[in-house]
Specification:
heterodimer, A: mainly alpha, 0% strand, B: two-stranded antiparallel sheet
Chain lengths: 198, 169
């Protein structure tokens, strides 16, 4: 932790300036401050705790190596999230090329289910369903969906992070939702009935 | 956190409101209610929160800082050392290639029978005269290197290279 008499903690930009001045303790403070956000995004994009931890650590190491490039006129979190999405998307692509979506259809399609059965929502189950069916999304679609739906970032913010237009973000979101619904119908009909009954 | 009643009253309209989302992510009963009204919010329920990496925050930060210190340390000395070793290795490889090329060229040019040096020819002559092995040799596939003696007498065969000969000759 940084030793400071100031009761008000330095903001991200001030912290970055201190780190640039050669203070490694300030970097440790920044890592502590951002770990939860970085890890959460990595975990939701990647869907595996251990891999997410490795990727999050890699993000911080890249952050350390590239801190000189940060332009303080932009929000630090936007810059950090861009790094997370780049590293995360690279990781998913390399994993996809390894696995080649072998696991995407491992869950047997249910041929029948009780139409009257009520769906009790369990977060762990939803998380598991998402990890399963989101394998059909492209890395970018998944990243955008996670940032919007789970990290609650607004479309303009996501566009800034990814360096694209808002309309691109909206298109990706639209397609991601459509693909996820299709997968739910195909592989989790008990959940898909919710859309049918609307 | 807002109450279930407030959530149900405001849910469909203000789904992006932070308090509504907080309730959605912590109340199972209202989650089921919300998904029945708008299934699109289903995956929003697993968002939010402050997840901690496996092993805990301290271990995570410790690992990052250890790696950062290691990289910072190796950056100040590593590249210089490795560049020096790389230069030495390249220089050694280049000199080996040049010398072996020169030796090969010399040995090839020596085939027509021109002595490399008088001294070497004389020494070879001594060795050959003390242990005569071959007096006559004829072969289409052999490479024969002949070196005359220092006194200019008969040519003495000092080396025969013939792949058709048995290895244990």
């Amino acid at each position: 932790m940084i030793a400071t008499n100031d009761p008000v903690a330095p903001d991200d930009r001030q912290l970055v300036e201190t780190i640039r001045g050669g203070n490694a303790e300030a970097f440790e403070e920044l890592v502590r401050r951002k770990t939860s956000k970085v890890y959460a995004l990595c975990y939701r994009i990647i869907g595996n705790a251990e891999d997410a931890k490795d990727v999050a650590q890699l993000v911080f190491i890249k952050l350390w190596e590239n801190l000189a490039r940060y332009d303080p006129q932009y929000a630090f979190d936007t810059w950090l999230y861009r790094m997370v999405t780049n590293v995360g998307i690279d990781f998913i692509r390399s994993r996809q090329s390894r696995d080649n979506a072998v696991n995407s259809n491992l869950r047997l399609v249910k041929t029948s289910f009780d139409e009257e059965q009520t769906v009790t929502m369990q977060r762990k189950e939803i998380e598991s369903v998402f990890n399963d069916i989101s394998s059909v999304l492209s890395p970018k679609q998944k990243t955008i969906f996670v940032m919007r739906e789970m990290e609650d970032l607004a479309s303009p913010e996501i566009a800034k992070i990814l360096g694209c237009r808002e309309s691109t973000v909206r298109n990706h979101l639209f397609n991601a939702r459509k693909l996820l619904q299709q997968q739910l119908h195909k592989r989790y009909p008990e959940y898909a009935q919710l859309w049918r009954s609307r | 956190m807002i109450s279930c009643a407030t959530f149900r009253a405001t849910f469909p309209v203000s789904v992006d409101d932070a308090q509504v989302l907080e309730h959605l992510r912590s109340c199972d009963v209202c989650l089921t209610f919300a998904v029945e009204h708008d299934p699109d919010v289903m995956f929003r329920a697993v968002g939010g929160g402050d997840p901690i990496p496996p092993g805990g925050l301290d271990a995570f930060v410790g690992d990052v800082m250890r790696e950062v210190r290691m990289r910072s340390g190796s950056r100040s000395t590593g590249p210089k050392e490795s560049a020096l070793w790389r230069r030495i290795a390249i220089a050694a490889a280049l000199s080996a290639v040049v010398s072996s090329g020169a030796l090969f060229y010399q040995s090839r040019s020596a085939i027509p029978g021109v002595p490399l040096t008088i001294e070497r020819a004389a020494m070879t002559s001594v060795i050959a005269s003390s242990r005569p092995v071959i007096e006559n040799y004829e072969s289409d596939s052999a490479t024969i290197i002949e070196v005359p003696t220092a006194a200019g007498e008969d040519v003495q065969v000092v080396m025969v290279f013939d792949e058709s000969l048995p290895a244990d000759l």
